[in-house]
Known about the structure:
Structural class: alpha+beta
Strand order of the largest sheet: 1-2-5-3-4
Strand content: 25-35%
Mean pLDDT: 90
Order of helices and strands: EEEEHHEH
Number of helices: 3
Distance between the termini: 30 Å
Helix content: 40-55%
Number of strands: 5
Low-confidence stretches: none
Amino acid sequence: MVQQGYTYAVGRRKSAVAEIRLYEDSGPIVVGERIMEEAFPYSIWQQIINEPFTVTSTQGRYRVVAKVKGGGINGQAGALRHGIARESGRAACRERV
C-alpha cells in the first residue's frame, strides 16, 4: 500500500480548533467523516472555508481532511479557513522555490 504524503496545520478561531491534513491531489474537503457540503450546509460557510484556495488560485489542486473540535459552526468554519490558509501558503512557497 502506498502512503500519500500530506502536510499538517492547525487552525483556530474563537474556541474552535481545526486539525488540517492537506494532500497534494484533487478531491473533496472532508470534515470528520462528512464532506464539506454536508457538514456546513450554508453557502456562506462554504465560501469562508474555500477562501484560501480562491485567493491563491489553487481551487481543486488540494484535498483536505480535517477534524474540528469546539466552538460553534461559524467558529469551526473560520478555524478551517485559518488552517487551510496557513498550510496552502506554505505549500505555495515550496512550489515557488
